[in-house]
Amino acid sequence: MSGAQPEKNRRRSGKAVCALLLATSVFALLRPAQPYAQVTELRREVSESAILDDQQRKTRQLSMASAQDQTAQAGAITQSNAPAPTYQPASPGAGLDEDTSPATGSIFDSPETTDDPFADTPAPVPRRRPSSARQRAADQDEVDAAEKKTAARTLATTDDTAETDQDAINRRAVTIDSADRQKLDPGAERAEAIEGRDKRAEDDPFAATGIKLGSFVIRPTLEQGLTASSNADSSSEGKPALLSETTLRFNAISDWRENSAVIDGYGTFLKTISGDEIQEARGRVEGTLNVDLDNDLRAIAKLGYEAAPESASSPVVIEGTVEQPVRQTINGSLAVEKDAGKMRFALTGAVARDIYGDAELSMGGSLSQKERDSTLYTATLRTGYEISPAITPFTEVEIGRRLYDLRVDPNGFERSSTRLGVRAGAELDLGEKLAGEFSAGWLREAIDDDQLPAISGATVNADLKWSPERGTTIGLTGQTIVEGTTTAGQSGDILYSGRLTGEREIRANLTGNAALGVDWRDYIGSDGHDLTLSAEAGLTWWLNRYTGLTTRARTEKQTSNLEGRDYTAHSIFVGVTLQR
After folding, report:
1. How far apart are CA 551 and CA 554, in angstroms?
2. What's the pTM value of the predicted model, to 2 decimals?
3. Closest listed residue to residue 556, CA positions, set 311, 359, 322, 317
4. pLDDT above 90 (res 453)
5. What would the pLDDT profile of 247-290 be if each residue is shown by its tens digit?
6. 23 in helix, strand or coil?
7. Half-sphere exposure of 260 (CA within 13 A, CB side)
8. Residue 539: which residues within 8 A CB-CB, separation 6 or more?
C-alpha cells in the first residue's frame, strides 16, 4: 500500500497542474482587450491611398500563404514518394529484433509514442543507432540533399507563380485604342510623310473645285474676250462689228443627304467697240428641286426666268425699229412621280408666262407689244412600263390653255387657244454610256377665233447624252415649239429645233467642243418656211485649274422663201476663262 501512495500523489499533482493551466487560459481569454479599431486608428477618416495599401498588403499575404502551402505540399509529396532504405546488417543476427506486430488493445501492449508532455506515460527513449548503420546515415543524407533541391525548385516555381498572380492583380488597365496602337517593327522602314505619298490621279485635274456656301457648292465661271462678227445683229441688213463679250455662268448643287437641288444660270453682255452699234444683255436662271415623299412618291419642282432681246429673225417683223423688244419668260412646273412595280406614272403641271417690252422706233418713240403678252397652262400625264432597267417606254397626253392678256388684239382677232397633244417615246438609262429620253407625237392648238386656222403638226423631242469613251460626250437635243403672232390674218408657226453637240478632252489641260444646229420654222396658213443652219467649234487651253484661254468660231445661215429674211453671219471669239 505504501508503494501505491506515491503513485497516487503524482497523479493528483499532474491533474492540479492541468487545472491551473486551464484556468490561466480562460482568464487570459476573458481579460478585456483594447479595441482593435483604436489600434488601427479607424475612428478618423480613411484615405483612398490607405485603403489601396491595405488591399495590396492583404493580397501579398494571401500570395505568400498560397506559396507556402504549395511548398509544404510539394515537400510532403516528395517525402512520401521517396522510399526509406531498408537496413541490412553486416552479419546475420547483428540487428535488434523489432516488434512489428500490431497492437491488440491488451494492457500488456507497449505504450504508444506521444509528444504530450502531460501524458501519464512518458515516451520511450529512442534506440541508439548501431555502429553498423553508418552507411544508412550516409544514404539518408543523400536523400535529404535531393529533397532540399526539389523543395528549392518548387519554391522558385511558386515564387514565379505568386509574382505572376501579383502582376495580374496589379496590372494596369489598357486603353480602348490599345489594340490599334501596335508597336512598330524595329526593322521596318521609316514611314513617309503624308505629303510625300503617291496621290491618286484625279479624273479631271483642271475641273473647278467650287466654293462651299452653306449647304451648296457653287462653281462660277467668268469668260471675257473679243468677238469679231460679220453680221452683228444677225439680220438681213446686218453690218460687221468688233464686240466686247462678257459671260458669267454659275452652277450650284446641294449636298443634302436625301433631297437635292440644282441651280444653273448665265448672263451675257455685248457692247460694240467698233462697227455696227450693238449693246444688249441676256441671261437665264433655272432651279430644280427633287423631294422624296412617302409611299414611293417623288416631287420635282422647277422654276426659271429668262430675259433677252428678241432676235431679228423672229417671225414677228416690226418695221422701223432701232432695238428689238426685250422678251421676258417666267416658267414653272411641279411634277409628282409614282412607281408601282414596273409601272411608272407622272403628272406634271406647268405655267409659262411671256412678257414683251416696247420696241424702240427709228423715228423716235416706242411701240407697245402688250398685245403679245400671254400665259400658257398645261397638264401632262405620263404612263410608262419598265421593260428593263435600261429601257422604259411611255406615252403622254397633254392638255392646255393659252390665254392672251388682251382677249381681242388691235386687229380684232381672239388669239387665245386650247392645246391638245399626244406623244410616245422611251426613257434610256445605260449609266454613263447612254441616258435620256426621246418622243414623237402630234400637237394641236385651236384658236378661239374661227377666222384663224388651228396650229397643228408633228412633234419631236429629245434629250440624250452618249459617252462612247471616257473624256468624250455626245449630246442630242430636240424640241418642238409653238410660236404665236399678232400679224393680221396669221395664226403663228411651229419651230423644230435640233442640236448635236460634242465635247472631247484632248489632253488633261486641253478641251475641244463642237456643235451643229438646224432649225425649221413652218408658218401656218401659208407655204412660208425658214431654214437655219449653224456650226461651231472651240478650244480651251487650261493654264492651271483656275485660268484658261478660249477661242471659238461660229457660222450661221438662214434661208427663207419669204422676202427679207435671208442672212449669213460669221464670228470668231478669243478670250480668257476664269473658274473657281
Report:
1. 10
2. 0.65
3. 311
4. yes
5. 999 999 998 888 999 999 999 999 999 998 889 999 999 999 99
6. helix
7. 5
8. 510, 511, 512, 513, 550, 551, 552
